[in-house]
Input
Amino acid sequence: MLDKLDAEYQEILHWSLTHRKTIVALSGAVVVASLYLGQFVGFELMPETDEGEIRVDAELPSGTRIEVTDQVAQQLLRIIRENVPEVQRVMTEIGGSGPGGSSGGGRPSSTHTAEFRVQLVDREKRQRTAQQIATALRPKLNIQPGMIVRTRSAGSNFMQRFSSTGGDRASVLIRGHDLAAAMELAKNVKTHMDTTPGLADAQISRREGLPEVLIKVDRDKSSVLGLNVSQLAGALQTTVGGTRASMFRDGGDEYNILVRLVKSDRNRLEFIPQIPINTPLGKTLPIGSLVQMEQTQGPVSLEREDQERVITVSGNLAGRDLGSVMRDVEAKTNTLELPRDFTITMGGELEEQEKAFNELIVSLVLAIILVYMVMAAQFESLRDPLIIMFSIPLASIGIVLALLLTNTTFNIQAFIGTILLAGIVVNNAIVLVDCINQLRREEGLSLREAVELGGRRRLRPILMTTLTTVLGLAPMALGLGEGGEVQAPMARVILGGLTTSTLITLVFIPILYTLVEERTDRAHRRQAAAEAGVAPVPVQQ
Output
């Protein structure tokens, strides 16, 4: 069987050397086609893993009593158990941090939120992934208007764990000072994100303001009576919030003594204007004659980034990669008319992805330069290493095909695999070119004879080294076991790139070698003929 393989390869190589220009043009066309197909490969920072956990965040209108939130949470819990037979256990937290809490963007906890952590059975015991279960469960949880329910799988991406968007992978940053204009712009961005395929559960980081009473002081009247704003604020603080007057000590324990109104009086707004205040002249008058009260809503929190006010509009991915989703979102947001001094940028994981990819591009270029320098030192030539380096672009064919066929995104792990390929795929070409040089130098064979014989002698070693690498990476490429999705892209990139590069290198590198050597020999003959003053004589190849 191996002898037959040698004979077939010899025939292919002989035919290829006869039709060199056709093979070179075909190889270039295939590389260009692979680069064109690369636009259909998804991009993201890190592959999403199946950790066997789904998180459901429910948010009712602000001010909802915790008893009502508990009733809604019980309904959601029943829906989760009915529609997720893979559930193992569910942990419910009502009135805690939830989607608006400290774990989800730094907003304070409140009584109108609930969070569910759905633990699934082991991966081998279920047919659906956590992402598929979350996608199927999402539309069934919107049981009443005015309630926001968000469903996502709990991935291992560190950017999700520490992001200000509470685990959302897609986010848009709106920078601007004016709160009203920023909120209006955020609503428009959210509308565009809601209509983007592959994007679900879009939310605005800034929540509706909590009810509050705004007290405005009549400064002119207060100054006439000898009072200032600080004194009026202190009187309100003492009567409503309380002021520590002293400490009560009982044994080794100490207790604060607060001076304030009784609960029935301080919790009623109509009593606040009746709070008495003493003037420096010894008169007592109600504070309502010096202030104006206005019921309004105040922001729960103000987010800042790089000393600028920021509103984040974020969402979860549903069936599409991050790169394609954010391209669609960016195209839609570019059509918005921005107020003065406002900017819209793509943030979150996409921002980190761009930073990481730029650094990895530098690493890839350095790897190629170092590989070339090592080969140039060993071959004591600049021409032969350059021929060998042409095997690197051939690996792009297998990279793109492997990612498309396995529906794998190009992420950091895949990029690392590409950098590794820069040092792996040249090995076969090094072995082949070195053998051809030895045959020409030690046995005095002609160029074509050395190329054909060298290819036949190095066919089996090249195939064996490639096959051992492929088989060694095959289990990793399958992504078996928990967390296998993280390393699988790197293995698939190496497998695809190494396989196609090896098969094409066995034909393309000998052809390129003969073309370069023939051109070099012709140049040497013309130079020698010019020095001797005679016409150059063709040399048998």
